[in-house]
UniProtKB/TrEMBL annotation, chain A:
Name recorded for this polypeptide: Ribosomal RNA-processing protein 43
Any one of the GO BP annotations: TRAMP-dependent tRNA surveillance pathway
Entry's family note: Belongs to the RNase PH family.
MF-aspect GO terms: mRNA 3'-UTR AU-rich region binding
Keyword rRNA processing attached: yes
Organism of derivation: Gracilariopsis chorda
GO cellular component, as recorded: cytoplasmic exosome (RNase complex); nuclear exosome (RNase complex); nucleolus
RNA-binding among keywords: yes
Automatic annotation (TrEMBL), chain B:
Name of the molecule in the record: Exosome complex component RRP46
GO biological process: nuclear mRNA surveillance; poly(A)-dependent snoRNA 3'-end processing; rRNA catabolic process; rRNA processing; U4 snRNA 3'-end processing
Positions of the UniProt region annotated as Disordered: 1-37
Domain Exoribonuclease phosphorolytic: residue ranges: 37-165
Organism: Gracilariopsis chorda
Comp. bias regions, Basic and acidic residues: 27-37
Source organism superkingdom: Eukaryota
Locations listed in the record: Nucleus
Record key words, sorted: Exosome, Nucleus, rRNA processing
InterPro entries linked: ExoRNase_PH_dom1, ExoRNase_PH_dom2_sf, PNPase/RNase_PH_dom_sf, Ribosomal_Su5_D2-typ_SF, RNase_PH
GO molecular function: RNA binding
């Protein structure tokens, strides 16, 4: 007879199976119960938008930074959005390479979901001269499974929290008057270092941040791991290692299905598909409640 | 029929992909195909002499070549005592990023690589070759839409060509959704214009199967009813694809068999 801890380490699959056969999970949840979600929005003052998501022990922090730059020649009237994801060393015991690879895949996953929803033409201050460049960075601080859902939720919450200052272009002459006069503004000087003889751009930026991105339609994801003909919603890290396949439902804020991602060679039966779809709709309501409460 | 009502499912009349208007069933798409018509498919085996198995699948002008090496020696740190280790190398001929605003870059390569690794690991009888590796080298020679689909199909055929025993026979089909209409086997420009592009992989070894193996959706699928119709359309496509591959494999086998009439 070996102790429970040893059995858990040596036979992780059998350990999980014993629980799943009785429709519970090692942390006491039912198969169709997700972990408690904590969402804290706008706590980071140095970022224009931020959000912290805690899904059980999984902790993910998203921050948005905004800078004013010259637009590139291909898209002179569109702003730029950069998305990156980092798995910090605190997140898991994996090596830097493994964490890096996972971060690249998560970043791509997030990028393809989020970018279509951001209207980059609203980020333009003046075509050909000045646009906003938003860089969204998501840090995974603690990895206890289901980074996909946490990363997307944190990114969406941070983007909804973004408040940009109003920007107004000025000529050189006006600049002098403004510095002496109005208190709530700040001069900025954005110029293109690459080319010589380029005039520098001057603009006035208000110190109050009031412009939001107006993100009305955004993706919300609900992930499951398949194991023994059952679908485990919101898997923990221990479960993810042992389960055979992940299914992610991409939903709209209204609860309608936007898409579905499933990799691998294990069949998703229609019965399981319908059950997961129903659970996803319920879960989206929970997400929306938290998003609306926080913002 | 009012031209404004664009909500039809699956096998409806043709739709002009560019204008979103209903047209007759034969006309509509830029290359003259109807909504339910796939491009010409071709497959060739064993083009690579050094690989254990190889297959080249062409869907119209999309061209994907897959080479399989395996079971071969596996580096020590990747060895698994109970299963074969699958490594996928995915390459395109063009540069990763281009000036015209590429959305695909190192990230998409990583995703496709991971997806293929998951698929091949699940499909190959992994416990037959412990501490060994199977290398899947995918080379996209030309991309005019449907690359993921062609890559998965070519991988399956290459695995058969290599003689690796398989637990299932995954074949893929992709469609795109425009204004609630489903269009089969989209080309690059149709993929870009689409509301959603859906690629579904089915296990064609099963006779009565209602589920699917994998699915990749990019964009807005327009709700679960439309998605269910999309699954059915893809399933029919995969049946045709399977019939085609079966025919080509039978021909290939016939060449190497000497049959003595009784």
């Amino acid at each position: 007879m070996i102790s429970e801890d040893v059995y858990r380490k040596v036979h992780p699959k059998e350990y999980l199976k014993r629980f799943i056969d009785k429709d519970v999970r090692p942390d006491g949840r039912a198969v169709s119960t997700a972990r408690y979600l904590r969402l804290t929005i706008g706590s980071i003052n140095t970022a224009v938008g931020s959000a912290l998501v805690r899904l059980g022990n999984t902790t993910v922090l998203a921050g948005v930074n905004a800078t004013l730059i010259r637009p590139n020649n291909a898209n002179p009237d569109k702003g730029i959005v950069e998305v990156s994801v980092e798995l910090l060393p605190t997140a898991s015991g994996e090596s830097r390479n493994v964490r890096g690879e996972e971060a690249v895949v998560l970043a791509e996953f997030l990028r393809t979901l989020i970018i279509p929803h951001i209207d980059v033409s609203t980020l333009c201050v003046e075509a050909d001269k000045l646009v906003w460049c938003l860089s969204l960075t998501v840090y995974c601080i603690d990895h206890d499974g289901n980074l996909e859902d946490s990363v997307v939720l944190a990114a969406v919450a941070a983007l909804r929290n973004v408040r940009l200052p109003t920007v107004r272009m000025v000529d050189g002459d006006e600049g002098g008057d403004i510095e002496n006069g109005i208190e709530n503004t700040r001069m900025i000087d954005a110029d293109n270092e690459a080319e010589e003889g380029n005039e520098s751009i001057m603009a006035v930026v208000s110190s109050k941040r009031t412009e939001s991105l107006e993100l009305d339609n955004f993706p919300l994801t609900v992930s499951f791991q398949l194991f023994c003909e059952k679908a485990l919603i919101d898997p923990s890290a221990e479960e993810e290692v042992v389960c055979v396949s992940r299914v992610t439902f991409i939903m709209k804020p209204t609860g309608d299905m936007r898409g579905i991602l499933k990799e691998g060679g294990h069949i998703l039966s229609p019965k399981l598909y319908n059950s997961c779809l129903a659970q996803s709709k319920e879960r989206v309501k929970e997400y929306m409640k938290k998003l609306q409460a926080g913002s | 029929m009012d031209a404004d009502s664009l909500s039809f499912r699956g096998e409806g009349s043709g739709v002009d992909a560019m204008l979103g208007m209903r047209t007759e069933s034969t006309a509509g798409r830029r290359d003259g195909r109807s909504h339910g018509e796939m491009r010409a498919m071709s497959v060739s085996y064993g083009e690579l002499t050094r690989a254990d198995g190889s297959a080249r699948v062409r869907l119209g002008t999309t061209d994907v070549l897959v080479a399989i090496y395996g079971p071969i020696e596996c580096p020590h740190n990747k060895q698994d005592a109970e299963a074969v280790h699958v490594h996928v190398a995915f390459g395109r001929r063009e540069a990763m990023s281009n000036v015209a605003g590429a959305e695909t870059g190192a990230g998409t390569e990583s995703m496709i690589t991971r997806d293929l690794e998951a698929l091949v690991s699940d499909v190959v009888l992994a416990t037959l070759h412990p501490r060994k590796a199977v290398v899947v080298a995918v080379q996209v020679l030309a991309d005019s839409g449907g690359v993921i689909c062609a890559a998965i199909n070519a991988t399956t055929i290459a695995l058969i060509d290599a003689g690796l025993p398989l637990r299932a026979l995954p074949l893929a089909a992709s469609v795109s959704i425009h204004n609630n209409a489903i269009i089969v086997d989209p080309v690059v420009v149709e993929e870009r214009e689409a509301d959603a592009v859906v690629c579904i992989v089915f296990d064609t070894a099963l006779e009565n199967d209602d589920g699917f193996m994998s699915v990749y959706t990019m964009g807005d699928c327009g709700g679960e009813e439309l998605f269910a119709a999309t699954v059915e359309v893809c399933r029919q496509l995969v049946v045709k694809t399977r019939a085609f591959f079966r025919l080509s494999l039978e021909r290939k086998a016939a060449v190497h068999h000497i049959w003595n009439a009784p």
